[in-house]
Design goal:
MULE transposase domain-containing protein; 12 helices; two-stranded parallel ribbon; 3-stranded parallel sheet; 2 domains; 9% strand
């Protein structure tokens, strides 16, 4: 699973302790790490910003989570389903067919390209959902330029949009294996996780993920 953080509080100090522990265990950890991806949790993002200050470091956001957040916001604005599909495709791209992918804002190769394309979408978006473009500019555009667009994922040496779905899958698998009652003691939890990590031949189900050596995806298991 890679480095895994077991914690009882979802706050910035907890994540800071995790990064500090890794820094003590791994020589030059803070300086060797090139990128970290997360789902955008505020406490996690703040801890990452404090812990990793290298100019070349990349702080990635999960495109899948961001897409869900955008869809939720559009529904909150009482948008029609076709309008939601159109705007989401404008932002995240869409597969026209099995051979053709139509790029979205997230595929911008520079921040200036992103800004230009976003301006061009104003008329269409204002027609579909009158308040959405202004909201997106105020609340999301800088996040996209700093954490999501192709210019950022290229810097992190990723091929395509970043997603932490595999970490979410591992997280859910561990919770299913340990039990979701919320009443598991730490010694029992540790034993169950050790069992979970046994070779696949010893268990009927195991999803194994190989982390890239210059990145860390953050599974965080709240107990």
């Amino acid at each position: 699973m890679g480095p895994t953080f077991v914690h009882t509080h979802r706050d910035e100090n907890s994540y800071l302790r995790f990064f500090s522990a890794l820094d003590r265990m791994i020589p030059n950890f803070r300086y060797q790490m090139q990128a970290i991806g997360s789902d955008g949790d505020e406490a996690t993002m703040n801890a990452i910003a404090v812990s990793f200050t290298s100019e070349s470091f990349v702080n990635l956001l999960c495109a899948s989570h961001k897409k869900e957040n955008i869809e939720y916001k559009l529904k909150e604005m009482k948008s029609a389903t076709p309008a939601i599909r159109h705007i989401v495709s404008d932002i995240f791209g869409t597969n026209v067919d099995s051979m053709l992918y139509q790029k979205g804002l997230i595929d911008s190769e520079t921040t200036s390209e992103f800004d230009s394309r976003l301006r061009d979408l104003k008329t269409t978006w204002d027609h579909l959902v009158p308040t959405f473009h202004a909201w997106f500019v105020s609340n999301e555009s800088e996040k996209f330029k700093s954490h999501l667009i192709k210019a950022v994922t290229d810097q992190a040496q990723l091929d395509g949009h970043f997603s932490n779905n595999r970490v979410e899958s591992t997280n859910n698998n561990v919770k299913d294996w340990v039990g979701r009652s919320g009443k598991v003691t730490l010694p029992v939890f540790n034993r169950k996780v050790e069992e979970y990590m046994l070779p696949v031949s010893n268990r009927s189900l195991r999803w194994q993920f190989m982390p890239m050596d210059h990145m860390i995806w953050l599974p965080h298991i709240l107990i």
